[in-house]
Amino acid sequence: MTPCPPKTSCLTCRLSDLCLPFGLQIDEVETLEIIIKNKRPLRLGELLFSKNDQCLGLFAVKSGSFRRFVINAEGIEQSLGFYLPGELIGLDALFDGRFTCSVDALETSSVCELPLTRLNELCVKIPNLQYQLTRILSKEITTNHEQMFLLSNNSAKIKVATFLLMLSKRYGALGYSHTQFNLSMPRQTIASFLGLSNETISRQLTSLCKEKIISVNQRAVVINDFISLQAIIEPCHNK
Amino acid sequence: MTPCPPKTSCLTCRLSDLCLPFGLQIDEVETLEIIIKNKRPLRLGELLFSKNDQCLGLFAVKSGSFRRFVINAEGIEQSLGFYLPGELIGLDALFDGRFTCSVDALETSSVCELPLTRLNELCVKIPNLQYQLTRILSKEITTNHEQMFLLSNNSAKIKVATFLLMLSKRYGALGYSHTQFNLSMPRQTIASFLGLSNETISRQLTSLCKEKIISVNQRAVVINDFISLQAIIEPCHNK
DNA sequence: CGTTGTTTTGACACTAGTCAATGGGTGTGG
DNA sequence: CCACACCCATTGACTAGTGTCAAAACAACG
Known about the structure:
Two copies of one chain form a homodimer. Chain A is an alpha+beta fold. Helix content of chain A is 38%, strand content 20%.
């Protein structure tokens, strides 16, 4: 609708402490935001990019949420991760300049684009920026390890509980409620992400509801009993 | 046995093209190798570091192999990945200076240590080095995504076949045979890595042997029929 | 109000886990 | 050099947890 979206300012963006500007001096942030390009908002299902596309820049989520996925051997979409505001999309492409997964919008969402060539120039000039980028890359690796840990050795119940707590933590860090939030993805997408069937997701959510640990109404989730939800994951954390 | 291990030289190291020196000028490599510290070889089961240890440096595998793992809620070791020669260990600690997993040696193995403070200094002086480190971080993220893809949605047979092909590819890249190699880890460790039980690993290997696709004798594996092994993973790759 | 897509629920099948027993290698000590 | 113990791997029997298929309930949208 807006013919020309308002110019992004990292200085006034409430996400900047979660994003690339974290730790930068004010003048450094001002230099950074010069290179940032706004993109028009994407709607549900719209692709930000596809696997094997050339990467011209990284993306920072400004609002909404995105999903990373690939198409498997049977032609089925397999969800591999989610991006919430403040998170950087496309880090896997720094290796050889091509995206290794596809990313689409889970709802109406927007991003800031950081053109790669200009970002690289800036990283040489601003060591703090390079440092923060390295930290973000490292953090992504740790997040991946946690995800692998979750997928390798756990029951459906533990997977679903962990998924809910993970979202709770991330929404909390964004300043939203960590006890009630809306899932921005359908059951099928959660299922694919957790390596389960959508029926199993449904049954596990129903089961948690019956135990009064959560309440679910469509995409709306309320966590009623945080302690019990935690206890599902770490049954003997009192040891 | 050797009282003072011979000084490492990246210039003569046959792994240098897989490691941090890739893409560097000769004089840059010479500057890099000044900061490298040798560590005495580790034996089977010895810890390189533990989860939550302070990270003083990254490690490059010189020989042998390592395993990344954590202890889960039941007190069981959960294997999360393996490191072969030329690969960098500890990238997850760049975020906040603490290791997020433990790493131990799967056999007698050795590493080069890259002290973090000196590596950071050098990265500012040598942009190529910073660039290569970023590439390695990005590649690690892609490897993690592949691992998550494998864990999320596949049968035991596909997991075991993919595991064998992954090792085949990595050994091949190191200049070893990609059709026969020794597993450096017990079945239990493979099982934990793939999110399966050790009995299932055993049964799947036996099954692949009966199909004449591989031969297994203890830790020794021979891939007899590469095409069929590939076909297990991508049943319809001829489409 | 009908169409469509999503979610839930039920019935059943099947994969992989668990438990238990057996077999095979390796290493140590007599 | 052999016997024993220990660890690891294999195999079998049984079971539990999920997946699959199908149908029904529900919500969203035009």
